[in-house]
Amino acid sequence: MKTFSSVYAVPCLFGVILQEGNAFSFQQKNVGGKIDTTTSRKEFFTQVVSTVTVASLAVVFSPIQTLAIDVNVGGKIHYGDEGIMSPKEHGTSANPVQSDLLYGTNNKLADKISNFNRHFAENGGYFQTTSFESTIMQAKDPITFYDSVTGKALFVAPINRSAGEFIAESKIHGWPSFRDEEVVWDNVRVLNRSGETVSVDGTHLGHNLPDRSGNRYCINLVSIAGKPDSQN
Known about the structure:
Blueprint: E1 2-6, E2 27-31, E3 34-38, H1 41-46, E4 69-73, E5 79-80, H2 107-115, H3 132-138, E6 143-146, E7 153-157, H4 163-173, E8 177-178, E9 188-191, E10 196-199, E11 204-208, E12 217-219
Parallel strand pairs: 5-9
Antiparallel strand pairs: 1-4, 2-3, 6-7, 8-12, 9-10, 10-11, 11-12
């Protein structure tokens, strides 16, 4: 484990159009006249596909602002028990997600995935409809990703690989994909039986889906799109 000084990126994003339905749709509900779709990662990985259908994206960027943040990153996997995800004031968390999430992520989807969900995920490839990739590729240093509910640091990436490699792996698997050395274990736990990856405060983040290279944390961007809490 090491203390890592990284950056918090603030891009300016406008005009995101999310295509709600795609080949990997697992669960659909009509909410306010719009189709709200989530996807099971297991369902996603059992389908043989060559491309991910994503929406068109109109983005206008201002220069990226950065704020140095010191966090302890990396080390061995930290396991947790089911008590972390016990019911609280707002689903599995004490509060809703922040109102001004980063990367142009959808607030309602973020709250649903982060606080009222144990099994489903944002659409495979959803992060490609946001400013996530551009933010990573433009940054000179690794980016710190914060809990969408609490603002606590959860991941720092890329570490021990290039920005291009981080993005490429994420595209292959459909979700931002982190490795052990990129996890802030002070604030992240993996549940033993399911591999569900969560924050210590009850935010559902994603799942650990190991491959030949070791643990791989496939994480919903909507769950790690928060701004840092100055008290953490």
